[in-house]
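Section handout 9: paired folding examples.
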Amino acid sequence: MKTTSNLNLPTLLIALLATLPVQALAADVETPPSESVPSQPQTTDTKPTQPESMESSPKPEPLPEIPWDFSPYRVLVWVVADSARASSDAISPTLHEFLDRDFSSIWRVTIADAPMAVRAAASRDMDAMSYDMLTSADPVLAVKRDHKDAVRIRIASNVGEFVNTIYSTKNQIDGVIERGGQRGDSTLAGVDKRLKPIDGDASKVQDLWADANTEAILASRGMAVRLDNPEAKIVTLPIAGLVSETIEQYDKVFIVRATVDSMPGRIDVVELDTLMRYFGPIASSSIAANQPIGEAVGHAVIKAFAPVVRIDDAGQKTAVGLLRASGLIMDEDSPAMIHVDDVLQPMTRKNDRNGNPFMIGAMDWAYLAVTEYKDRNVSMDFYAGRAGGLQGRKNARTFRTALKVRPMEDETLLRLHAQGDVDFPLIGYEIYEKELKSTAMTFIGRTDWNGRLNIQKTDDPLRLMYVKNGGAVLARLPMVPGLHPTAVADLQGDDLRLQAEAYIRGVQDAIIDLVAVRELYKARIRMRLERGEMKEAEELMEALRNQPSNEALATDMGKKQAVFLKLLGTRNANQKRKVDEMFITTRELLSKHINPILVRDLEKDVLAAKKNGGKLPVKKPKDDEEES
């Protein structure tokens, strides 16, 4: 069963809203007042929705198109309980009353028992919950993308028009026809006449996908998304009880797992932001003695709730947005309010022409810090560890929002591994913290044998981490410790750069040693020539010629440089540039100090000594030459 709270706005406020122009609720573009823009992307099925049974799919009360800052959240609370004492019917009165204290004008709340697929996912592991997991049991039509009319197929009626045969099991076919009847169309927009039952189960249907003659199958969404060779074009059916369709009717879905048959009782709640299909951290609370279950659920729901800011303008380092339902908030301490120093997580959704997202979710290693809240507008500083940012071309299919972070843990385990290889941990890398408003840096620790380091939660939720190795900064990682149990960064390790640096240092040391050796030979050879010890001088000259030459060292360096650059490939231009600079500097050092001039000068001295009877002539001082 489901219940819906009647959170009516004051008459005066409704009258005020009626005079305001219609605006887009979530898109980051200006919309003319004459247009009607939905707060959520439209589904691919354009067939009118018929009333459903209360048991199959709860529906929120319809909302007029009103501005984002005066638009209340549409909230669904799905209850998964181990006892009838915690069912939606049992807790609804208390829960509605509790939530009305903070959200009477801000939320439109529907409370219902969770569908079977949601119950199964919540019972297994709430941490691993995903949108695909919740909707995996929904029946869908999977059409081969290489079908000759695939580009024309967008909705169920198109499938009935362009596809001849759709294979499935008899039970699956009977089930969708029955659910289509609950919605008022047992023909499924003309699809029913194309359905053909087979002998066998769902695995047999999946095997038919490999048959070149198969055009489409009726299967669960979980199976359809895994089909390949070719991939499947998924089309939603116009039937009752679809989890995916129910989710899209709301802005927030709270999945409540109530464990009341054991002592002490426990409530676990996770929030799903439906636009971004993003699951927040799990909020938990215990049920105190004699405490109404609905009240305990309410506490956990408030902990899990993340206010939403629509990002309207973004630069490289700053952003400005509008807080959802901010015009309805009357209390500065409301859970829906945003304050200075709050931290938000930016998110992006980009839809295709059918309203389905092809890019969706939170930005990696990126956060927004609130610097000002004025007139319902939120000014924020942007901190990111990767290039790209919030900037981008605005259009009606792009949505940019930010959710307030709610760190529930005491720490986050940071793990570093090589890019593209999770089994290659970055060991012994240094982690530093930089203050947000200064250049001061503090050493935090080194990664262990598995590339891990625990980062503790502090009074400042946002911490700016820098990864160093061998004195070089490899990455900047903005973090909110405690937001997630683990945070994994795949970095381009600089072990090859360090190997190149070690080789270059060895070459530079060898050059310094060789300069000293050559100067020593020079002094000894001239001393022997001045004494007339020609034989010893020639032996020393031969030993000098056998010392490493400029050409030999340069050739060896060239080979090593080619090896390092090949190993680096095109993955990291910055590291390649650093390696090139090290080799260029060393070649200049080599050319300056190891050259053939010294050997040629000594060979001239040897010839002069031979012409002088085996002894180097004594050079006259310059002053004597000038006097003569």
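Moving on to protein 2 of 2.
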Amino acid sequence: MEFGLRKSRDTNPLIIATLALVVLGMGISYVTWHNLKQQRETINEHMFLSSQVILRGIETSLLREVRGHQVMGHGMMHGRAEIEKRKASIRTQIVELLTDLVNQSEVDFLSLYTQDGKLILTVADKGLEYPEIPAYGWEALQKTGEWQAFYSKNKQNIFVAGLRSKRSLGQIATIDSSLPPPPGGMGTPYLVVGLDASRHLDQFGKFRSTAMYQTLYVLLVAVFLWGLAIAYMRRRDMGKRLHRLERFHSRLLDTMPEGLLTLDKDGLILAANPASEAILRQNREGTLIGRFWQKLPLKSVPQEELQGHFPVGTSERTWVQYDYDGRCLEVLMLPIPPSEKNPDEDGERLVLVRDRTDIKALEDDLAEVRQLAAIGRLAASLAHEIRNPLSALRGFAQLFAEKLKGRQPEQQYAEIMVREADRLNKVVSDLLFLSRPRRPELMPVDMRMLCADIQNLTARDFELKGAELHMELSPDLALSADMDMLKQALLNLVINSLNALPEPDDSEQDEQGDGPEKRAGKVEILTEQRENAVMVAVRDNGHGMSEDDRAHALEAFFTSRKEGTGLGLAIVHRIMRAHGGQVSILSHTGEPSGTEVQLIFPVRVQNNESRDGVDENA
């Protein structure tokens, strides 16, 4: 048998641990990515600021040279040769300045461009292939006056930055004759510098590697701890399952209704549950454990079953009945296969014991009921054969009563024959109804009219009995039933109540013992509208019914009167089951005595449905 723990207790820790691991991994990854991003942005910002400082310094130096050249050009005391010599000197100074800057710093190249992107002057490190400015770079320079980008080519990492310079710097083209000024002038020139970013990127690469290793290490530690947590939870769950299994086995053995015992190969009782103690020990003192199974007072027990040894893998899986102190017990013996670790357990047996005393009594009662049912079916089948000659006999008896009118005792004998034929015909009709019940046809019932018919039918009987029939009917009673079947049921109940009333000459002592006091018989028909049902009852003040009679009153052929047939209440029960209702009997044998039979019709049956007939097994 497998056991599972509640999901709310089992899966929650696992889900929480998994979510914690996922959140931790995502958090660490995000922090690492954010740190790397900030580090790269810091490098970009540092390179950009450095490039701006260099570009502004170069711009200042170049503007100084241009202004010096302009001052010299306006002096008239110098000749043309002197001016050309001065230009060559300035050009040499500019080239030397830029070259020294490239050779002695991280600057890889310096370039000067016109407004429309034509190169005016460039100084680059030896062997360097400086990149060309792309179209989006020129667009950024024209819009914002600044631009920056990283270039990687042939293992060279260059940070390129551009700056929009002052318009006066465009006069540098007049210094060197090899640099012809562009048509329409230079406009606003642009300075572009390229810085060596290898050292910074190498440091960034080392930082990135360190951060990745640290992140991986933390994640591995987290996964390891997560695995330990999962292993711990699984071990804890296994412990809980084992504990629950042990507790279940203990509770199962303690609460199971059947007895369970374990015997060794000699028949010694090794273990017994409370049910076996209750079944086998009864009023005996002591316990079953330690006793021998063979010494229990089991009658008709085969000795070979008690002392025999079942080989492993075979068993007699048959329940055997025994008599034990007047009770019927069933015993089943099964061999227990020995385990590999304990071969000494070979020969042990498992014994199941159950008390079938009550079940056997029910089986006997069922056999009797089946026998009675067979008799009832036989009587129903014979009813058709009886009714035809019975009708002829009644007709002739009625004819004789008319012919012999005034002649005694012949007329009396003929009238007795007619009454007995009517009584026998009623018995036949009741048998036919029990054997072939019909489906009720529901319709609204007028209880006042129905009770008036019953009163007319039984008026002579009540007069002879010296009893009275009273009716307490609720107004606006919402009752739907089969009129004929309800009339038959009420008529049977009224006749039964009338027969239960004392005879007119019966008398009882009054409470003071002063003398006899006549008690008038009374039968009442009551109705009551309830919330979910309608109750129709017949009550009398007769002698009442005993508990045993009341328990069997609804059974067919059961009667406490010598002249009764035992079919009246059985027919009432059939009719109520056909309507989906119930029959309730309330009776008292003390003072005041009397019996009340209640017919309860459910509302749902009245409103919209009826049963398809009665239960044939009722």
